[in-house]
Amino acid sequence: MMRRAALAVAFALAANAAFAAGIGDPAPAFALRDAHGDTLSLERLRGQVVYVDFWASWCGPCRRSFPWMNELQRRYGDRGLTIVAINVDKNAADAARFLERNPAMFAVAYDQAGVTPLAYSVRDMPSSYLIDSRGKVVEVEHGFHDERKGPLEQRIQALLAAR
Amino acid sequence: MRSSELLARPVRLPRHWAGIAMIILLSGCSTMQPPKPWEKGQLAKPEMQFDADPTDARLADHIYTSKEAGSGGRGVGGGGCGCN
């Protein structure tokens, strides 16, 4: 009886550990539907520097982050940076309305079920994960802060140079 | 035995059944999970705020301040400079 309980606790802890995407961890895989109905998978972006961003239409800082992400994609896109903005809205129409007002020049994927944010243990909205070309999480951003733009861009430049 | 007697007879359950029933009932509460950060779309709506109308909130605050001869106490305090 005791042994079974201990086993259950161990399993629960192991499951917890699997649900974390901290710095140094392999980025949890995902394959999501994009705006064109195609599947966008992280696996296929291996070799690229990937910036995964979780956003929602109701999230204020997300709105401010879009112009910056557009700029990043424009500047570093052909040097090997891919920005994937995962929308977590329950209602697709909300996301569409947001994108009309805040055009995205980067890849947008949809996860209404919330499986991916759970796998990445998203703590704040927005949250972003910088993933290197080997698929490892190298930076985790909670929220969107103007003072983090510079350091993040430098980090991206360094990752692209090392690629 | 007449059927009326049968109905009048109290149902005898072991006493610890009440406890067991309580535990089962209360365990339902433990399944309540707060919404995850990405599930707060409904909560973020303007009509879900305590002060949905800023003008109304400001007026209410003004009246409250003048009536109670004290200001503040609504929301989070400042940086500790002692000023209002």
Instruction: Give average pLDDT of chain B, whole number.
Output: 76
State the helix count of chain A: 5
Question: Which percent range fits the helix content of chain B?
Answer: 25-40%
| Ends apart, CA distance between termini of chain A | 52 Å
Number of helices of chain B: 3
* Rg over C-alpha atoms of chain A, rounded to the nearest angstrom: 17 Å
Query: Main sheet of chain B, how many strands, which sense, barrel?
Result: none
For the termini of chain B, the CA-CA separation is 80 Å
Radius of gyration of chain B over all CA atoms, rounded: 27 Å
Gross morphology of chain A = globular
Most strands sheet of chain A: 7 strands, mixed
Rounded mean pLDDT score of chain A: 88
Characteristic terms for this protein:
heterodimer, A: 163 residues, alpha/beta, B: 84 residues, mainly alpha
Give me a quick take on this structure.
Chain A has 163 residues and is an alpha/beta fold.
Would you kindly provide a written description of the structure presented here, covering whatever features stand out?
The complex is a heterodimer of chains A (163) and B (84). Chain A is built from 5 helices and 7 strands, in the order αβββαβαβαββα. Chain A has helices at 2-18, 60-76, 92-101, 115-119, 146-162; strands spanning 31-34, 39-41, 49-55, 81-87, 107-110, 127-131, 137-142. A 7-stranded mixed beta sheet of chain A has the order 2-1-5-4-3-6-7, with helices on one face. The mean pLDDT of chain A is 88. Chain B is built from 3 helices and no strands. The longest helix of chain B has 15 residues, at 54-68. Chain B has helices spanning 3-8, 16-27, 54-68. Chain B is 39% helix and 0% strand. The interface between A and B is medium-sized, with 18 and 8 residues.
